[in-house]
Amino acid sequence: MTLTLYTNPMSRGRIARWMLEEVEAAYETVVLDYDTTMKAEPYLSINPMAKVPAIVHNYKTITECAAICAYLADAFPDAELAPRDEERADYYRWLFYAAGPVEAATGNRALGVVPDAAQQRMIGYGSFDRVIDVLEQGVAAHPYIAGDRFTAADVYVGSQVIWGMQFGWMPKREAFAQYAARLIERPAYLRAASLDDALIAVAA
Questions:
Q1: Range 3-80: architecture per CATH
Q2: What angle do CA 14, 16, 20 make, to 5 degrees?
Q3: In 10 A of CB 104, how many CB atoms?
Q4: Where are the domains of the chain?
Q5: pLDDT at res. 115
Q6: CA distance 129 to 21
Q7: What is 85-187's CATH number?
Q8: Are 66 and 18 in contact (CB under 8 A)?
Q9: Is 143 helix (H, G, I), strand (E, B) or coil?
């Protein structure tokens, strides 16, 4: 088995690193620079989008953080992070909700883009406030996003919430704060953060 993470410690690659630590997989890390190696071969052959993260597992490439989380949960079943039958609906609903409406709405918010009423009918997420209200309902319904048990969906949804509050893209509502607090205490989260923070320190 070969498993490689292509990342930058100041990127969404931190999500993939967290998921890799959750499944306790042995993996190699390749750190890329935004202005050079990320936009050149050989990486462009792995991800022509010139974005990180990407993983290559047994010569198969997976990109997009939500897909990486779901893939690793399936590829390493002993970690028990894939959904059980009773969790499956919420697992996929909120995983893709975070990858779609939440990612788009918070990204536009960070860029200062505010769709008017006509534009809200066209774009997939509608309005920022509605996206956040619905996410709050999902986070508040259970201890974890798919129920009472931590799953791979929490890695992705949780990352959106943690970063969203940290960078001011998302309001610091009580449900979000309580959810984030449960996640950042996880040993895998702490290991992943320590590894990436150490890479940032070396680069500085």
A1: 3-Layer(aba) Sandwich (3.40)
A2: 115
A3: 16
A4: 3-80, 85-187
A5: 95
A6: 33
A7: 1.20.1050.10
A8: no
A9: coil
